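Deliverable D2.4 — example input (structure tokens):
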């Protein structure tokens, strides 16, 4: 009897699945099944390969994958353009997942509608898988979207494959708790930020390549940076910028009063920031203490940090953009906690 019941249940499930697949089937999510081969749209003349840069709508995109005549693209561009359009992952600092985030609503409404009707018809629905973090922080329900952010796994996959370069952007994976969201930081480093923080975003989507609406910019591809983070050098002045402290030694929790001088508007616009580091720590270790602030104005800027709780040698470092590499590092000043 149980055998017949099991067969009946299997038949019902098969019929239900066939009914679901008879409609508009979502495009499969990105996988590691890349072969880098070019794909063309039927009999059209456009041929696109993974690694190509294309123009679609008003934006430039990197082709991350080609599959069954479709292309998976990730928005590329200059860092100042990303920061100009930066916005929160969610409008309020609450526990949130990708499914209910204001970023998802924005990308699939306002951003989606910034494209023409013909361009929107080329965007394919994607089954977006939202996995939980290994720590148990929930990723939420899977969604079906035309435009979305990469997950941590996808960002790592395409970065290590040489298909995306260094960039600071929101990801859709949760952070270390449910009111934080992961960010792709560089090289590749993943960090997290409060959901209501304002950060750049780089959307991704699956497209049907149509030569009437897609232009190939280059087919050279890109490779990830192989530069290593060296240890910061002492000092306090670089060019016209300088960092000074009100004193050189603090007790745990005491206010550290920092003065930045010679700050340019270009540094502010590029997302310049200052943070507290253990002496000798790499630039991308800023999340260890999580004591950092954006530089919000030009000229002379005053910042205040709470001294770390552990005794030791530390530094306040200044960076000239949103990065955390040697190329972004400007100068630093040392202090002790005892």
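Example output (designed residues):
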């Amino acid at each position: 009897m149980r055998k017949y019941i099991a067969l009946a249940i299997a038949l019902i499930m098969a019929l239900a699945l066939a009914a679901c697949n008879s409609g508009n089937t979502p495009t499969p999510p990105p996988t590691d099944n890349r072969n880098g081969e070019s794909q063309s749209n039927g009999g059209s003349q456009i041929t696109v390969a993974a690694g190509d840069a294309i123009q679609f709508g008003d934006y430039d995109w990197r082709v991350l994958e080609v599959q069954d005549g479709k292309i998976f693209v990730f928005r590329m561009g200059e860092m100042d353009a990303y920061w100009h359009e930066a916005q929160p992952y969610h409008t309020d600092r609450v526990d949130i997942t990708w499914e209910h985030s204001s970023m998802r609503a924005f990308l699939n409404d306002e951003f989606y509608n910034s494209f023409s009707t013909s361009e929107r018809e080329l965007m394919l629905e994607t089954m977006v898988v939202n996995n939980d973090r290994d720590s148990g922080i929930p990723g939420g329900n899977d969604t079906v979207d035309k435009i979305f952010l990469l997950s941590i796994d996808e960002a790592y996959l395409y970065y290590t494959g040489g298909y995306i370069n260094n960039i600071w952007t929101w990801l859709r994976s949760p952070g270390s708790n449910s009111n934080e969201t992961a960010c792709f930081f560089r090289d590749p480093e993943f960090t997290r930020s409060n959901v209501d923080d304002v950060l750049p975003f780089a959307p991704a989507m699956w497209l049907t390549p149509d030569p009437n609406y897609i232009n190939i910019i280059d087919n050279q591809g890109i490779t990830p940076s192989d530069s290593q983070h060296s240890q910061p050098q002492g000092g306090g002045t670089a060019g016209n910028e300088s960092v000074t402290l009100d004193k050189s030694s603090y007790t745990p929790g005491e206010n550290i009063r920092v003065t930045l001088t010679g700050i340019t508007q270009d540094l502010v616009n590029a997302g310049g920031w200052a943070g507290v580091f253990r002496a000798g720590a790499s630039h991308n270790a800023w999340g260890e203490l999580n004591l950092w602030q954006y530089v919000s104005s030009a000229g002379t800027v005053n910042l205040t940090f709470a001294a770390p709780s552990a005794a030791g040698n530390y530094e306040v470092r200044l960076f000239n953009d949103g990065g955390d590499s040697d190329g972004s590092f400007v100068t630093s000043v040392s202090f002790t906690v005892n």
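The domain at 237-337 is CATH 2.60.40.1930 (Immunoglobulin-like).
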